[in-house]
Structures are given as C-alpha cells and as structure tokens.
Amino acid sequence: MRIALVVPGGVDRSGEYRVIPVLLALISRLARDNDLHVYALNQEREESEWPLDGAMIHNIGPVRSRVRAIRAICTAHRKLRFDVIQAIWSGAPGMVAVTAARLLGIPSAVHIAGGELAAVKDIGYGGALTWRGRAREALVLRAASAITAASEPILTSLSEVGLTAERLPLGVDLKAWPPRQPVRRSDTRPAKLIHVASLNRVKDQPMLLKALAQLRAAGSSFEMQIVGEDTLGGEIQTLAAQLGLSDRVRFQGFLTQRQLRPHLETADILLMSSRHEAGPVVMLEAAAIGVPTVGTAVGHIAEWSPRAAVAVPVGDSTGLAGAIHDLLKDEDRRLRIASEALNRAVAEDADYTAQRFRALYARLIAAK
Predict the structure, then answer these.
(1) Banded model confidence at residue 186, pLDDT cuts 50, 70, 90
(2) CA-to-CA distance for 304 and 83, rounded, in angstroms?
(3) In what order do the strands lie in the sheet with 166-167?
C-alpha cells in the first residue's frame, strides 16, 4: 500500500526534538509494510526531504504550504500511484488531504487530534472560533472519505454537527514506555505530583496552581513538577511565587521522552488542567507506567472517569484540589484507578493504533 500522510509538523529529522512521539510511533509502524510518504507543512523553513523511521519526510515550508503540498502529492502520485491520503489534524492538513484526494480520485481520511472543533473564545483557541474556521472544517470533514478521532468527547462534538466518526486513539509506543504495575506509595513522604504540558492558555496552569495553593492550605504535603516549554514568558512561574508555592513547585522546562520518563515514573499522580484536549497523550504514557491521572473532564480524562481517571469540571480549581486530596487519602482507590488505566493504555497502544489505521485504509480502498 502506498500512503500519503499529511501533518503540520512534529517529524524533525533529529527524531527527538520538535517531534510528536505518538506520531513517530504511528509512522514507524505504518512504514514497516507500506510505502509511506509524510508531507509536513511547516517542519522547517526551507523545502527539503529526509528519511525518518522507515518513511520519507517531505517538508513543504511555510510559504503557500497548502497549495505546494497538494502539488507535491499530485506530482508524486503521477510517478507512482498513492492508494490513500491521511491527514493527522484537520485544518490545513485536512484541507490538503481531501483536496489532493479529490483531484486524484482516491480515498482520504482525516483524524481529529486537537482543537479543530473547539471555540474557547476568551483565550482565542480553536478551529471553530470564526465562521471561516467553521466553514473550512465543515468542508474538509464532509469531503473526507472517513473521519477518526482520539476520544469519545470529540466523537460527540462531531455528532452534534451531523458527522459520524470512528474512535481511534493515538496509542503510546510500549517499547519507549515499557508497562509497569502501579507502585504503592509511602505516606511518610510528601506526595509526588507532576504536570506535563506546554505552558499556554489552553493548558490553564493558573487553575492548576490555584488548586495546589488550596491543597497546601488544607494541610496536604506534596512536591510538584511542571514539565513543558514555557510560551508565556515566565508568567506561570511568577504566579507560583505569588501563591506561595515556590518551595513546592519545580519548573523543569522542556524534556525529551527519555528525559521525561524517570520524572513520570516517580510520580504518584499526573495532574491535567486543560480547557480542551482530544487526548492528552501524556495521560496514556503515565497510565502505561502505573501513574493515574486527575484532571479536567476533557478527552481521555472524561471518557476514562471514574474507573480509570478522576475528572472534575473545566476551570474548577476547588474541585481539582478536592479530587487530589481525596485520592491521596485513599491509596487502594489510587491503585485501582492506576491499574485500570494501565490495562486501557496497553490494550490501545501504538500497535493497536496502526492496526486500526491499516484496517481503515483497506476498507476505503475496497469501497473505492
């Protein structure tokens, strides 16, 4: 099978920095038994190509990237026919995929992996904020031969606008995250908490810090690590100091997957405070090594709660503080949730994801 995969980026030639690990896991698996060509709209400034994990990466560059990507796919197709075109994320990748597929008369698939359908007005986030964005998404998704999405909340959003999709989570690579059973924590030491996400408006770290301040005021003993690139110019670190959390919270900055794992392994709970998520993938990585998640009711957190995660309403710092406190006070419950999360992460790992995509492509090609 010859596949064109369209992505915004996340496929840096280093294979370690400026990459999306679950995307690399999918690429490496699809490339094992298929001729896979990945079209990255804006990985690097200049047009270029390089091999990565068995696939060929075609970097388009930021100038007129959609038009040039469509042209590149059509040119490659004339040399050797593609069987299917897949977009990971709708928006610009989806537009490229469905347009090229229509021109070439082959099937296309679009995977919703982020905020394509969201409209969080107060922070200016989401593909559905403007009428142009909503029109673009409607055009792309109705033109696609198939739509997939990472979690049930995204499927619900699609059904509300009359679109049917398959749930297809982007699972983690269990070679990079070998499964580990949950570890009983000692109540003689402070609880070890961790948050992994870029510091930005969507992830809502101010709400998280407010919850931690309430947790501290309630007498809980904890240590917190925040891992992720800072896009807010030190704003979150300043707020942590203002809330009196400087002695409890450590900011680690960006870490590669290899650097992250030791920090995540020592955690008792992963905390997420996002306003919107299709995943989050870090929740699956934590689950694979026996660490449960407490967070806002988005993405996998919403669909796994209450058996395999603990969810609270978006923006509810008091609710988040209470949920953390309650789980730390009930070790047997924490271990039960962690065990169920582990089972789900292992059942829907990167191999499962690749198998599902292969099966989808086979159906689309047969139908065509």
Answers:
(1) confident
(2) 35
(3) 48-52, 55-59, 35-40, 2-7, 84-88, 108-112, 146-149, 166-167
What CA–CA distance (Å, rounded) separates 218 from 282? 28
* 3-state SS assignment for residue 127: coil
pLDDT digits (tens, 9 = 90+) for 194-224: 999 999 999 999 999 999 999 999 999 999 9
At residue 188 the predicted structure's pLDDT band, cuts being 50, 70 and 90, is confident
Contact 172, 285 (CB under 8 A): yes
Indicate the domain borders of the chain: 2-171+349-367, 191-347
Do 10 and 20 meet the contact criterion of CB atoms below 8 Å apart? yes
The one-letter amino acid code at 285 reads E
* 82: DSSP letter: -
pLDDT of res. 226: 98
Tell me the percentage of the chain whose pLDDT exceeds 90. Answer: 96
Instruction: Decide if 2-171+349-367 and 191-347 have a common fold.
Output: yes
Q: How far is 283 from 271, CA to CA, in rounded Å?
A: 9
Give the number of other CB atoms < 10 A from CB of residue 358: 16
H helix runs in the chain, sequence order: 21-30, 65-79, 91-104, 131-143, 152-160, 205-217, 235-242, 257-265, 281-288, 299-304, 317-329, 331-347, 350-367
Residue 368 pLDDT exceeds 80: no
**Average pLDDT, stretch 153-168?**
94
0.85 exceeded by the pTM? Answer: yes
CB 137 within 8 A of CB 127: yes
User: Which pair of tokens denotes residue 172?
Assistant: 């983690």
**Domain at 2-171+349-367: CATH code:** 3.40.50.2000
Q: Which superfamily is assigned to 191-347 in CATH? A: Glycogen Phosphorylase B; (3.40.50.2000)
